[in-house]
What does this fold into?
Amino acid sequence: MPDVTTKHRRVKIVPPEELTGLELDKPSNAAAGITGVTVAMKHIAEETGMWKGLKILSKLNQRHGIDCPGCAWPEPNHRSAVAEYCENGAKAIAEEATEKKCDIGFFAEHSVEEMSFWSDYKIGKSGRVTHPMYLPKGASYYEPISWEKAYQIIADELKSCSTPDEAVFYTSGRTSNEAAFLYQLFVRLFGTNNLPDCSNMCHESSGVGLGETIGIGKGTVTVDDIYNAEVILVVGQNPGTNHPRMLSALQKCKENGGKVIHINPLPETGTTKFVNPQSPLDVLKGGVKIADYFLQVKIAGDIPLFKILLHYILEEEKKHPGAVVDQTFITEQTLGYDDFISEIAQLDIPKALEACGVEHSLLKEVATLLSANKKIITCWAMGITQQKHAVNTIREIVNMHLLRGAVGIPGAGLCPVRGHSNVQGDRTMGIYEKPKSEFLDSLDKVYQFSSPRHHGYDVVETIEAMHEGKVKVFMAMGGNFISATPDSEFTGKAVQNVGLTVQVSTKLNRAHLVTGEHALILPCLGRTELDLQKSGEQFVTVENSMGVVHTSRGNVKPADHHLKSEPAIVSELADVVFGNKFNIAWKEMRDNYDLIRNEIEKVIPGFDDFNKRVRQPDGFYLPNGPRNGKFTTSSGKALFTVNPMPQFSVPKDHLVMMTIRSHDQYNTTIYGLDDRYRGIKNERRVVLMNRQDMHHFGFREKELVNIVSDQDGTSRVASHFHVIPFDIPKGSCATYFPETNCLVPLSSVADRSKTPMSKYIIVRLEKL
Ligand code: SF4
It folds into this structure.
């Protein structure tokens, strides 16, 4: 079995090919509603018990409450006193605060080999890890270890590195600002910038595309802007599942007269109809229509689509000179306009139409709408960022906003919607393998050392370095590296080349089973849990998609008294590794997080008076020049760009596959086996196909196939998937990750951002 490695122990790298009994139903015709509430409460009852669950939910996303460990959608100014969370937020809480435990007895009973043959769903449902656990070299069972011994093992391995670059420190987007700041400081004092993070696999393309054109790698809008926009484009995003409270904001926008345009290969229930469970009228009416327009674009057809829209917006300008294109804004605030319009003016429309697959008349209609309204917001997610031409697609979106002057004014702007609650905050704290020199200068000045200046490894480079045996120590702050990354078999074998792997985690996942020669699990507190340190109860801070920094504090007893907070783990480890070499008060910072925030204030611009301002009920906004019409590029102007039309060639009898989430998952965490919105029940090994393609290939509904991707001289196989007819453009198909991450070649990355191309994999389907 190619996906079973035996280097140190015999473990399965990818989820087993077990089928769970597929049932098909009609896709839901509306998102959320009473069903959403009942499903959420079922998860709460099963995992935490109603009493504890309701206690947590009463504080979820409330002022001075618990920040949801799900996505990074912001809190509205007027929060619902009843429930300021969505179904998937409740599921995230249920998972984290589950009463199930992976304690010493659990690990004594189940070997790493045995558990690696469990599905990711079963592994995740095993519960919270309660003790520091160690997997010695050559052993198959984790055994308990003291925190002190665990830190010493890490310190010894780090000291055995011949260069600091033999150690890599990964971060998942749930890590708080305080833990992230201490972590990057620890890593840079150790001497490396090897700080890959989950951003590398999700919005890196947004950071690069926006950074190049407007000078900041973040969105420029607030939640109020969403309410007051005239037109909102939702591109390559499925908010109904991945940012569900966004639906309430889109509903508000519509109530204020705004229009919503959904651009995506798949029609999604959430952008079709939304039943706000907190509105009895909505429930009675059966919900409100969200998208006024659905543009079913082909996979990777976004650049031709936006070029066509830009072309017709310019046509509208010709018909109504001065009414559409904001010349004053363009002259005063931008560069590159002339090259841009001459390229768009010569656009080969028929070719572009063929490439995007959307009806001509519909595009013209949308272009007219965009020409008639200035308060335009474009929201996007992985459907854009995980493609080869992701950065150029984002640059075309920026072109449209600059052409209309729709950035830096109320109700308008750019909105990459982050999928992880603090992924943006971690980057702000310095979790980045390519740190800016200003940031390193500030660190050097405050801590009197010379920080490493050469860039570190991103996620893909980390896997390549592991493969080449260049990584001795791999430490992960949260996350599930082995399941979240591409090319699973290659990655799994690469991870096994590492000497020591260390996972700071709340729950068991596959990264605890596919490890280095020896491995540690350091169990940490979750967001829902009280964090008591010497100076008393602590809170942490996070930054949401809109750049608001606010607090999060837990309200329930930790799952076990052996757990430590992330800041405590990093500061105690640093204390063991460095002692008083750098004269940094690690333990004092552990005991009182206000001291960490004081350090953040010294190093990072925008955090003045941090401890005072973050205690305000709604926290505070970080500076964002483009939000206020001040572009922070080197020229101080926004850039129009000319982006080549992508060329794709798909071999005969092949399809373009994209990986997606079901409604019962959050990243690699599997809450359940249903995908209610798409009418799929009790099965994850499914491939969604266009009916004509099924007919062409002679596939029946539910027929089992193997999915194969051939690249770099290797055939990667994902076995036993049921074919399901679905409303998806001809020539493309969709499957869930992480089950098909094994089909994404490591070399398949987006230009310039190097984000794995999980939304564009060329595959062929084999009948069994
Ligand atoms: S929208 Fe996102 S942040 Fe809000 S409750 Fe749902 S999962 Fe959590």
Remarks:
- The two ends are 17 Å apart (CA to CA).
- The chain has four domains: 31-96, 101-202+427-523+565-606, 205-416, 651-767.
- Residues 630 and 636 are 7 Å apart (CA to CA).
- The pocket of iron/sulfur cluster is lined by residues 61, 68, 70-71, 73, 85-86, 88-89, 92, 243-245 (CB under 6 Å).
